Each structure stands twice: as structure tokens, then as C-alpha cells.
């Protein structure tokens, strides 16, 4: 995959893998984002202890984006890997609250 077209910037800090969204989690982007995350998490990695989804660059998250985050959390749980969401702006945090997911992902309204 061409670096410029990757939907997430991936960095590692010890066992924690940080996926920073390069764009909003919206219907038109979710298929590529889902494929990228699936491929990244499919490979067994015994050193991975946590996944952090950084939404600081995601101005908008729609219902398909929410579904993507929920499925990512479920995959991590099945793999025995910690999962958290960071960097969500106030509008995105409120959307997670509307879906009663803010506590699951540890998001607090500012």
C-alpha cells in the first residue's frame, strides 16, 4: 500500500500500537480504513499489548465510523489486547455518548 494512501499513521511504543486516523471516520473512508486495520491486526504479534485509536485528526465520525471503532474494540478484546480511544474532539465525544459508548472507550466530554 502506498504510504500516502494509508488511512492511518501507525506508531509503536513498546507493546502499544497507535493508529492515528489521517481523515474522518465516515462512510466513504470506512471500507479502506477497515481493510487497513484488519490487515494490521490479523498478523499475530505476541508483543502487542494495547491498541490506541487516535482520533485527533478525525473531524467527523459517522455511524459507520462508530461501527468500525466498536468492531476494532471487539477484535482487540478477542485477541486479549487492551484498547482505548484518544484525541476525540468534543463533537465526536458527544456522538459516542449518544450511542452510550463513551464509558466503554473512556471518553470524557470537555
Show the helix and strand layout.
Layout (H helix, E strand, L loop, with lengths): L7 E6 L2 E6 L8 H13 L7 E5 L8 H17 L2 E5 L3 H9 L3 H4 L5
Parallel strand pairs: 2-3, 3-4
Antiparallel strand pairs: 1-2
Helix pairs in contact: 1-2
The helical percent reads 25-40%
Domain module count: 1
Strand order of the largest sheet: 1-2-3-4
Runs in which pLDDT lies below 50 for 5 or more consecutive residues are none
Major sheet size, sense and barrel closure: 4 strands, mixed
Listing every helix as H and every strand as E from the N terminus to the C terminus, the arrangement reads EEHEHEHH
Q: Enter the CATH topology name.
A: Transcription Regulator spoIIAA
Alpha-carbon distance between the termini?
Answer: 37 Å
Count of alpha/pi helices: 4
* Rg, Å, rounded: 13 Å
CATH architecture label: 2-Layer Sandwich
Shape: globular
Specify the structural class. alpha/beta
Beta content: 15-25%
- Mean pLDDT score, rounded? 91
CATH superfamily: STAS domain
In the CATH hierarchy, what is the class? Alpha Beta
| Number of strand elements | 4
Written description of the protein model:
There is one protein chain. With 110 residues, the protein is an alpha/beta fold. The chain has one domain: Transcription Regulator spoIIAA, CATH 3.30.750.24. It has four helices and four strands, in the order ββαβαβαα. A four-stranded mixed beta sheet has the order 1-2-3-4, with helices on one face. Strand 2, helix 1 and strand 3 form a beta-alpha-beta unit. Helix 1 runs parallel beside helix 2. The protein is globular. The model has no long low-confidence stretch (mean pLDDT 91).
